[in-house]
Amino acid sequence: MPVTLLDRLPLPNLKVYSAGSVLLLSVAMYYAVNVTSDPNWKANTTLQKQETASGIVEGEAAKMVQPAVTAVIAEPPMTDTKNFSDQFLEVMTFMMQEPLCMWTLINMAYCSLALFGFFIQKVVFGRLRVSEAQRVKDKFWNYLFYKFIFVFGVLNVQYMDEVLLWCSWFTLVGFLHLLGQLCKDRFDYLASSPTSARWANTRVLCLLMGILTAASALFMVAIVWGLPAGKDTFAFMAAECLLLGVSALHVLARFTLRAHDADAAGPAAYYTHLVFDAVSLVTETIHVAHMVVYSNVVVSMASLVLLMQLRHLLYAMLARLRRHRLYTALSSHMSRNYPMASAEEVLKHEDNCAICWEPMKEARKLPCSHLFHNSCLCRWVQQDASCPTCRRSLTAGGEARPAEPPLTGPNHLFHFDGSRYVSWLPSFSVEVTRRAGVDLGPGLAAATATAAAARPAPDAAAESTALVEQVQRLFPQYPRALLVTDLAVTRSAHLTIDNILEGRLPPPPPLRPAVAPAPAAPDAGADSPPLSDELDEDDSAENAFSATAAEREAALQRRKAELRAAARARFLRRRPAPAPAPAERSPRS
Amino acid sequence: MMAGSALRRLMAEYKQLTVNPPEGIIAGPVNEENFFEWEALITGPEGTCFEGGIFPAKLVFPPDYPLSPPKMQFICEMFHPNIYADGRVCISILHAPGDDPMGYESSAERWSPVQSVEKILLSVVSMLAEPNDESGANVDAAKMWREDREQFNKIAERLVRKTLGLPPPE
Ligand SMILES: [Zn+2]
Ligand SMILES: [Zn+2]
């Protein structure tokens, strides 16, 4: 359940925030130094402290902080010749006691964490891709929402100290979770990239190791501080660490699988994923169930949210179980009916697998003697029982019938009647439809609708030079000659601007020095043959497939513009009808 | 996992289409942030009423590509018996084996993972040249194609000029 309500919150950017935080901190420091320079400050504040202390009923968390504070306070009064570290300690002590100063300190801590996160992002990931940034944002708000529910709905924390401790705990855990999410997304991206970016992989791997280390450190924290506070607290904290560790390990496992070139849906990879999925799903379910039991409130907003989450988790678990049953049924069916091809056959078959286009080390052979990866074939047969290449039906071959039952059979198994277990659990049935419908974006309709009507011809009085000026003002980088040529054809500034914007006019020289003469070519006359020849040559030179996304995108853009320009030139050459039009329109006629 | 193999296959196809492009066809993801959405340019086939036009279309791939076919939609105005008014292309190669809206296609012409973007686009080019008037994606266009070819050619000419950014003939 993604929580996107808060998505539009106006957050200050990092620079402003950190500058503000540093400013605040220095003001607070200045104040603290001023106060503590008075030798009698301690007497004043401890008095206040004792007055308020009786009012504070300390929770478990408060107990942890209190001894440290009182220990410092109990120190004997200093002489005037304080050294620097003592003074620093004193300033800190004061700041911890003074609420306003303490908030500045906390703010500063968050600010440093944000800066640290920013630094890691810069070093490890570089610029985030849009989907990654979006995923992190979603996860962040989701996490914030559930932890808010947890702290105030489940634990029902009431004392500031406790809230602060839980906040700092969840800040650290959440921070690591977000980094883990980034690692996962980046791994998926790197795995699909055609070039092997060794260095990028190494950085992500290092970060994953860091996350694992931090997760174990947090687990130690849970043992040292959480355990004395009670078994429940410990279980909550430990579950968080476990989830963090499992997700990081899962990404590490994917790295390992890929490094060993494992078949993407082969048994090794499949069972690895199964184990990780199972561990994280079960842990999370137990964690949420524990919260529900602990909160012990029958009807409240928090328990409602938790139950929804629990339901979602159970749903996911059942879906996973069903997938697993399907997988086992299918793989046993395949191994019974379609033998693996011999090594010799695979060698003789020079082509790649026709489904994934990747080379085959081992393959399964269909009765029609077409070869495919086991995993690719598995996934296809789930959808259609025929050979992908020759379309021969696989079910027609006598005893191949069992292919059907695992596809449709187990459906009824997944009706979940929650009330059989706990009275308030809902009932639902799980239908896993594998074909996710991808709808074309709504922008399309709008795009097709624009400019459908033919534009009226421009006013006869309009000077063509004025039109050129008008376009040139908008696109100073385009050579004037090029604009004149195009305007002679379109006779409309709008159409020419459209042509420029939609890439039908070749881009200006600075983008592409190699083609510098090309834009000038139309100037010589629309029927100059060198234009298309030149473009053809360029095409062959630029057909190289670049290594970076940005270069590929630019090259694609360029090739499109060239195709359009060449088509225009060809069209005008064959049907030069509109070319003399401006002459007819001249005042002479 | 699923999307990973789809991405690898799409990347391989993109590479092949870039290094060894078929005549008059360009296709690729406009923004690689979303590799599942491509834009293609198709040149109208020679010797037909669509000759010379550069027709842009959008291809949207499912996460389980190539097990399921992509969807294709022209993003320019089109008038053709096999293209819906909103630009969606109705051609047998784009139909998954399971669904059969027309009820006449043999499964041999349908989508299979051995098909590819290149094959789809080439099929669309031949569809532009020879409409299949059994499929009535655009009934008006189908009728005009059968009964008033001259008018059909005129409309096609206007569309071709429009895709090239040229004003309609007077
Ligand atoms: Zn394969
Ligand atoms: Zn076959």
From TrEMBL, chain A:
Any Gene Ontology biological process: endoplasmic reticulum unfolded protein response
Region of interest (Disordered), ranges: 501-589
Membrane topology, as annotated: Multi-pass membrane protein
Occurrences of domain CUE (ranges): 463-505
Skewed-composition ranges (Low complexity): 513-532
Domain of life of the source: Eukaryota
Involved pathway(s): Protein modification; protein ubiquitination
InterPro entries referenced in this protein's UniProt entry, alphabetically: CUE, TPR_SYVN1_N, Znf_RING, Znf_RING/FYVE/PHD
Record key words, sorted: Membrane, Metal-binding, Transferase, Transmembrane, Transmembrane helix, Zinc, Zinc-finger
Biased composition (Basic and acidic residues): 550-565
Entry's transmembrane regions: 16-33, 102-120, 140-157, 163-183, 204-227, 233-253, 299-318
The protein, known as: E3 ubiquitin-protein ligase AMFR-like isoform X1
Organism whose genome encodes this protein: Vanessa tameamea
TrEMBL record, chain B:
Gene3D superfamilies (alphabetical): Ubiquitin Conjugating Enzyme
Keywords tagged on the record: ATP-binding, Nucleotide-binding, Transferase, Ubl conjugation pathway
Reactions catalysed, as given in the entry: S-ubiquitinyl-[E1 ubiquitin-activating enzyme]-L-cysteine + [E2 ubiquitin-conjugating enzyme]-L-cysteine = [E1 ubiquitin-activating enzyme]-L-cysteine + S-ubiquitinyl-[E2 ubiquitin-conjugating enzyme]-L-cysteine
UniProt-listed Enzyme Commission number(s): 2.3.2.23
Domain UBC core intervals: 5-165
EC class name: transferase
GO biological process, any: ERAD pathway
Record keyword Protein transport present: no
Keyword ATP-binding: yes
GO molecular function annotations of the record: ATP binding; ubiquitin conjugating enzyme activity
Residue numbers annotated as active site: C90
Lineage: superkingdom: Eukaryota
Complexes and interactors: Interacts with AUP1 (via C-terminus); the interaction recruits UBE2G2 to lipid droplets. Interacts with ubiquitin ligases AMFR/gp78 and RNF139/TRC8; recruitment to lipid droplets by AUP1 facilitates interaction of UBE2G2 with AMFR and RNF139, leading to sterol-induced ubiquitination of 3-hydroxy-3-methylglutaryl coenzyme A reductase and its subsequent proteasomal degradation.
Family per record: Belongs to the ubiquitin-conjugating enzyme family.
Function, in words: Accepts ubiquitin from the E1 complex and catalyzes its covalent attachment to other proteins. In vitro catalyzes 'Lys-48'-linked polyubiquitination. Involved in endoplasmic reticulum-associated degradation (ERAD). Required for sterol-induced ubiquitination of 3-hydroxy-3-methylglutaryl coenzyme A reductase and its subsequent proteasomal degradation.
Protein name per its UniProtKB record: Ubiquitin-conjugating enzyme E2 G2
